Every structure is written in C-alpha cells, then in structure tokens.
Predict the structure.
Amino acid sequence: MSIEAGLFQLLSQSAALQALVGNPAAFVFPVMLPEKPPLPCISYQLVGGSANPALTRSGVQRRRYQFDFWADYEQGTYDQAIALRDAVIHLLNGFTGALPNGFYVTSILYHQSLDGFENDARQYRCTAEFYITYNLPA
C-alpha cells in the first residue's frame, strides 16, 4: 500500500476526469508519459517534501506532488488541459481521508499552478502542485 498507488486509483476512477478525457481506459501515468500517450491525459510525480521523525513512529510526512495535464496542440485543445487541471484541483484540494487503496491522508492542499508548452512533443502542459500530509503506516 502506497500513497502513489492511492493517488493513481483516485484519479483514474474519477467519473469527472473520465468524462473530460473521453478515454477512461488509460489517462493517468506516474512520473512520465508513454511514447504516444492518449491525449488529453495526466502525469504525476513526487517533487519534494519533508518529514518530522518521532521516536515511536515515522512521524508526519509532508510531500509535494506535481500533476501535469497534457493536451494536443494540433487539435487546439489548450482548454482541455486547463479543464483537467481545474477538475483535479476540485477533486484533491481539501481532501482528507482514505484513498481508494486504504492509504489515509490527513490533508491535501493546493499549492500553485503553471502553464507551458512542450515544443518537441507539440503538447500543451498545465501543472498543479499539492502538499499532501500523512503518517506512514506502522
């Protein structure tokens, strides 16, 4: 059981996100996209964090995750990347409780966004970062 697996399940099982991508079979990818990803889609990765160790347990973990929202330039779908980002912010910001795999999160807080364009891939890329706080399971 891991937080990453829980985040993957939460995103990939979201009916709101599935409706936006039109391809509910595969649209969430950890760390990197496949060579020819179905667009629009989402990737996510750990980009930082900290821990407060304790003598009797692992202590509070605070990690920063980056979520990237990809859309195809040739289709003129910058709005698709923005809509995905907005939907994920709505889904995650303020979340407290168990992820679908049972991993318990004490809080998820939206941090910041950034927009960009990947010239080589000819893809729009919108980004949102979140701080996720939890205790490692015993």
